[in-house]
Amino acid sequence: MTGELPMTFDADFPMYVVTDEESGEVLLAAEEVEGFFVAPEGESPEVVFLRAHRVEKDRRRTDNAVLEIVNRRQEKVGEYFIGRAVLGDTGMKLPDGKISSVSYRFFGNRCEYPGAAAVWRRWASGVAMEKGEWLQWPVSHHGAWLHVVQNAWFTSNHRAARYGVDEVAHLDGDHIFTKSGFFCALGEAVNGPGGYFGSNLDALADCLSSSLDEKPLVRVVWRNFRASQEVLDRAFLDSAIEVMREFRVDIAIC
């Protein structure tokens, strides 16, 4: 796997929308954002939105801000509750009528996965996810991919449960290099491309528990398990298998 990102999708639609949760009012709609998808040590006081299509200058602050990720059809595919937000400076008006930049001071948490911005752009493209697509991203982005999968899953009102029709999930140890990669692979194996089935062991237990009565996961076939043993913590592997067996999932290791 190289360190290069796979092809991403350019867009001129307002992908980032700031709304007031209480009133539903749209405060800002912009194409890009800087300073939100950052590691904790890289946080700055302001978040800057680029190429804004709309900004509500008369509403300078809110205590219920939500940052929404929208796709080309202007459907919400992800969201972050921000809380208090204060409008700052606005840049110049561009020839196409958009505003070059708009700054906001966010007092809530940021997304701690810098790579999530690129993954969200892929998610918002409207192009259907393909099987194994997460493997096209560098290993360093697998945590960000899992984060977006989880956020998008619950934003679309899915439950922590199995929606797929196959009672058997197939994993390939040659493709699992990290704990995040394990959950990316399992989510896809159970619920299809872009699917979610836990992001940690407690969440996995929740998904298995919720599926137990109606659509239980019956079996996991884990090929090339030795490759997983070579790169993943033994305690994590043992715990993952123990959780699945606790909910009567048969584990076939080969």
Q: How is this structure best described in words?
A:
- Residues 168-247 form the Barstar (barnase inhibitor) domain.
- It holds the Pfam family Barstar.
- This is Barstar family protein.
- Belongs to the barstar family.
- 26% of the residues lie in helices and 28% in strands.
- By secondary structure, the protein is an alpha+beta fold.
- The strands form two sheets. It has a six-stranded antiparallel β-barrel.
- Strand 4 (61-70) and strand 5 (76-90) form a beta hairpin.
Indicate the structural class. alpha+beta
Low-confidence stretches: none
State the total count of DSSP E strands: 9
Number of helices: 6
- Span between N and C termini? 24 Å
Looking at how many chains there are and whether they match, the oligomeric state comes to single chain
Order of helices and strands: EEEEEEHHEHHEHHE
Shape: elongated
* Spatial extent as radius of gyration: 20 Å
Mean pLDDT: 93
Question: How is the main sheet built?
Answer: 6 strands, antiparallel, barrel
Beta-strand proportion: 25-35%
Q: Which bin fits the share of residues in helices?
A: 25-40%
Strand order of the largest sheet: 1-2-3-6-5-4
Family: Belongs to the barstar family.
Protein name: Barstar family protein
Pfam families: Barstar
InterPro entries: Barstar (IPR000468), Barstar-like_sf (IPR035905)
